[in-house]
Amino acid sequence: MYYKLVNVLYFITKECTKKHEAHRWCSQPVLNRRLHGGDLQISSAILTSGNNFAKCALFAKFLKLYFPSTSKFTAIQRKYLVPTISTFWKEQQRDIIENLQGESIIALGLFISIKFTCIFFKVLHIYMYRVYSEI
């Protein structure tokens, strides 16, 4: 039996006397081929909390914790997190607009009447930080 530490997870492999792998255990769930649950959780916590990856990585270094690399964080953010947040945001906008159909609202001092036509909120994307704004 031998142990292998990769980023924030352990692999424990059990071998027979002829060095054939009999069983392999991973300390985190494997979501797809190379994405582990802990990496996804850390990346999503940093992104949704508004924290800075470099500061969190430095904090983990001081505590001698293993942490995903910058490239891994960026890849997870680009492939999984940002598309999920964008989809959720669009669904929330659609729900708000459906709830306001036929209502008169005042937004930023302007009178807007939502009748038969659907008025979509203008979404302000600041791609560096992914800030969303309803105008």
Entry summary:
With 135 residues, the protein is α+β, with helices and mostly antiparallel strands. It is 39% helix and 23% strand.
Number of helices: 3
Instruction: Order the strands across the largest sheet as they lie in space.
Output: 1-2-3
Overall structural domain count: 1
Please, what is the oligomeric state?
A: single chain
How would the global form be characterised? elongated
Helix and strand pattern? EEEEEHHHEE
End-to-end Cα distance, whole Å, is 60 Å
Q: In percent terms, what proportion of residues is strand?
A: 15-25%
Describe the largest sheet: 3 strands, antiparallel
Determine Rg (CA atoms, Å): 23 Å
Number of strands: 7
Search tags:
single chain; 135 residues; alpha+beta; two-stranded antiparallel ribbon; 39% helix; 23% strand
Explain how this protein is built.
By secondary structure, the protein is an alpha+beta fold. It has one domain (2-113). It has three helices and seven strands, in the order βββββαααββ. Strands 1-2-3 form a three-stranded antiparallel beta sheet, with no helix packed on it. Strands 4-5 form a two-stranded antiparallel ribbon. Strands 6-7 form a two-stranded antiparallel ribbon. α1 (37-49) crosses α3 (70-99). The longest helix has 30 residues, at 70-99. The termini are far apart. The relative contact order is 0.09. Residues 110-132 have low confidence and may be disordered.
